[in-house]
Amino acid sequence: MPLPVFCVIFRLEPANEKTEGPLARHRPQKHAAPLPRPEPRRPEAAATEPFLIKEFTYSLEGRYGKVRLGDWLSLKPGALEVISGDSGFAGLDPRRVVFFDSETTGLAGGTGTVAFMLGFGFFSDLAFQVRIFVLLDLDREADFLEAVARFLAEGNFSAAVTYNGKAFDFPLLETRYILKRQRFPLQGLPHLDFLFPARTIWRNTFDSRKLGFLGEMLLGLSREDDVDGSDIPALYFSFLRSRAFSLIEPVVEHNAMDLVGLAAVVLLGVLYLDDYSLTGDGGEIFGLGRLCERAGLLEKAEAFYKVAREASARDDVCTLATRRLSILLKKKKFFSEALELWQQLAASRDPQAQRELSVHFEHRERDFALALSYVEKAIAGGGLTPARQQEMEKRLQRLQRKIAKLEEKEE
Q: For residue range 365-376, what is the model confidence (pLDDT) as tens digits?
């Protein structure tokens, strides 16, 4: 793809062509004798260029935990529909997706925040490629954004994948483009913000769902030497003053690592849906059930809940799966199967199950005394929300009245 004549292109080669190790940094060549240290100065070319481009290439054979990066190319059209919860991904070719991440001058958003680094990852037939645009002159932001727009137009991408992009990256970029009287090129495309599926899948497995943390735990992507996100704005402003690229080189590597990590963790989530044996924890299987339930795939959700309930060694996951499974059975009007699950949960003093049992025995079996006993247990056990407490107290009074009427008739 032809690049603008006013850009400066740098490429970082992998540390080892045969392995996917940490991103390599440029190192000065060794000399026989120390050379005199030159006075720092701003390169003449850099003073007039609005941006530079950094490129990284990742082998499709590279493995990240249980993921082989090249398996993305084997995904079938529509493979992202369930995990995205968006019908816009139905029939969409995953190979035409672009992964997007930005680095900014602040986290507050608004017109005073500038996205000075825009990173894009995409699959070709030979590799996973990352292209990162870095703004060199804040007064030339329009040229910078135009170059990004040309790149995206030539890439002909049909969907975007981000991590927290719906809340931060997209609104910010839409604002920056509007201020320059341009249109954000990714606006209007199907958008998978993987933060939300990640929260669902790993909510009951990990305390954190930050992308870097998931990359380390699931993919083996170590971030020990990674730059702290809170330091990025200061590093960028220092770079603008000194033109010392070494100041923002770690930020570029951070952005590239986020993109390859995002591609790999999304791929892992998609593969989980086809083969839950890849998961390492019952909480993940339960999370897959929640994803399918939200997508309307109730049969598949039921299957995941059954596996999580039967195979998980964790009591909390077993309880969650049993509860959701009972709800699905109730929706299907399989009340006898749901009743068995409610009774199991109620034996552990689950107030939600006690409520369901009170409803079942009051309205389906007309056993008011048994329904009343479950209401009393739920109230006595505590743990009810104020709204649920009020509901159960009303149910208690209603059942007491019904029982009193029956006793009057018997007399």
A: 999 999 999 999
